[in-house]
């Protein structure tokens, strides 16, 4: 008998029929004698609908009240799933984040989980119930409802699994695993049977939305066995045996478990939510980077890539990227700062994207960057910015080249030919 935490995303919970389908899978696992905790998202589109309503009242809704509102999406689906499970003969009980208790800090809209009191959940499980927990939400020390940032139900799933020391956290979604890149952008993307935590963390932080980055961090830190799999495929019968463990979905593993020879590149990630700011002709003096960039941080705007050009005539240029939703605000701020520091010109571009190649195999291979640049060059794609780390290379290009860049790199790094099986036997 195992303790399994299953998380179902918005599409999987999108209609009453799909919720019934989820119930049937939960029942198969329960019938096999496993204890099951289910973490759910709001129905697909619901969180966006609620944000739209809030914005119709105010362009910048009060963060506390926004969380109060957004948390309702998941409160609906926990109850629907509990009703559905009861209708097919299971004992089930739903919990909001506050009822569990999932304690978070007070950073509304992007709260972090601090602790979980799993005792009530454990009691229900021991009494034979299925427990359903609302994803994406918690409660702070003052009793305020908080939410964990978009995609946060993944993190609730992993955190519940960590608190309960579950045998596995299963993330059920609308694709059957983690692919070499988003299969909606590159039809030749291949499913991976395994990916390391390190690579998954990079993929998530560089824009692959299949797992929220904090869920991967959490799973790595607390050693939670984490698997991504399809909620639409009904093949598995709830047996948590070797066949399941080796063959279903994508397992996120530690590097040492993957003894197969690593391909150089495991995946390609991209982020469409990018914008670029350029401050030209500022005096090349100590402290200038801080004078330009500190106000951005002070305005709570996150900076991603930064490039400072070599000074020629005693002046220098700064280019940096921010989230596209912060573009207008950052441009206004830069125009003011540009005047203060005597910049020649401030411009920006919100039609850029970031494309990244990721792989732990890069560590031991030279020439990966040059192959990437050659491939993009051959397609006539101009590279605007570059940043690298040990296991990733990112470039900024015009958004019209996104699909072309991803597909060309996918082919160039031989990912079209990856087969799940070749990476499966560890
Ligand atoms: P859920 O509602 O279940 O949380 P999400 O939309 O958040 O689902 O995440 C699943 C989506 O992530 C897929 O439909 C896919 O388009 C996208 N995705 C991006 N990169 C990848 C990748 N490397 N592998 C699989 N899916 C990816
Ligand atoms: N419903 C929330 C969102 O859309 C949380 C989630 O689905 O993970 O971001
Ligand atoms: Mg998601």
TrEMBL record:
NCBIfam families: asp_kin_monofn, asp_kinases, PRK06635.1-2, PRK06635.1-4. GO terms for molecular function: aspartate kinase activity; ATP binding. Keywords: Amino-acid biosynthesis, ATP-binding, Kinase, Lysine biosynthesis, Nucleotide-binding, Transferase. Substrate binds at residues 47, 74. Signal peptide: none annotated. Residues 277-360 form the ACT domain. GO terms for cellular component: cytosol. Transmembrane segments: none annotated. ATP binds at residues 7-10, 173-174, 179, 184, 209-210. It comes from the Bacteria. This is Aspartokinase. Pathway: Amino-acid biosynthesis; L-lysine biosynthesis via DAP pathway; (S)-tetrahydrodipicolinate from L-aspartate: step 1/4; Amino-acid biosynthesis; L-threonine biosynthesis; L-threonine from L-aspartate: step 1/5; Amino-acid biosynthesis; L-methionine biosynthesis via de novo pathway; L-homoserine from L-aspartate: step 1/3. Pfam families: AA_kinase (PF00696), ACT (PF01842), ACT_9 (PF22468). Belongs to the aspartokinase family. It catalyses: L-aspartate + ATP = 4-phospho-L-aspartate + ADP.
């Amino acid at each position: 008998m195992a303790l399994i935490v299953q998380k179902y995303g918005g599409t999987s919970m999108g209609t009453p029929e799909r919720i019934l389908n989820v119930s049937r899978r939960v029942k198969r696992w329960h019938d096999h004698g496993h204890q099951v905790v289910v973490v759910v998202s709001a129905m697909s589109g619901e969180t966006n609908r609620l944000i739209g309503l809030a914005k119709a009242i105010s362009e910048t809704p009060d963060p506390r009240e926004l969380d109060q509102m957004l948390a309702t999406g998941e409160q609906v689906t926990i109850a629907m799933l509990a009703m559905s499970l009861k209708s097919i003969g299971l004992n089930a009980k739903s919990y909001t984040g506050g009822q569990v208790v999932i304690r978070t800090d007070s950073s509304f809209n992007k709260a972090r989980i601090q602790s979980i009191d799993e005792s009530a959940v454990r009691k229900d499980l021991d009494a034979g119930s299925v427990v359903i927990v609302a994803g994406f939400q918690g409660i702070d020390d003052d009793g305020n409802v908080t939410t964990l940032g978009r995609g946060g139900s993944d993190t609730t799933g992993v955190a519940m699994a960590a608190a309960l020391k579950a045998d596995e956290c299963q993330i059920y979604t609308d694709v059957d695993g983690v692919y070499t890149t988003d299969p909606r952008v590159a039809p030749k993307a291949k499913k991976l049977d395994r990916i390391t935590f390190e690579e998954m963390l990079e993929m998530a932080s560089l824009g692959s939305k299949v797992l929220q980055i904090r869920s991967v961090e959490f799973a790595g830190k607390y050693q939670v066995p984490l698997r991504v799999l399809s909620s639409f495929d009904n093949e598995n019968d709830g047996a948590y045996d070797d066949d399941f463990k080796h063959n279903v979905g994508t397992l996120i593993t530690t590097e040492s478990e993957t003894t197969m020879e690593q391909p150089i590149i495991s995946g390609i990630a991209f982020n469409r939510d990018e914008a670029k700011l350029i401050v030209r002709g500022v005096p090349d003096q100590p402290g200038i980077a801080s004078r330009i960039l500190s106000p951005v941080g002070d305005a709570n705007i996150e900076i991603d890539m930064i490039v400072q050009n070599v000074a020629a005539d005693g002046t220098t240029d700064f280019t940096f990227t921010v989230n596209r939703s912060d573009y207008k605000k950052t441009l206004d701020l830069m125009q003011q700062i540009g005047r203060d520091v005597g910049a020649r010109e401030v411009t920006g571009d919100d039609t850029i994207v970031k494309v990244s190649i990721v792989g732990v195999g890069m560590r031991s291979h030279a020439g990966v960057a040059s192959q990437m640049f050659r491939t993009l060059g051959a397609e006539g794609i101009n590279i605007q910015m570059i940043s690298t780390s040990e296991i990733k290379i990112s470039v900024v290009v015009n958004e019209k080249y996104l699909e072309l860049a991803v597909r060309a790199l996918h082919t160039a790094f031989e990912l079209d030919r990856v087969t799940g099986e070749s990476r499966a036997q560890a």
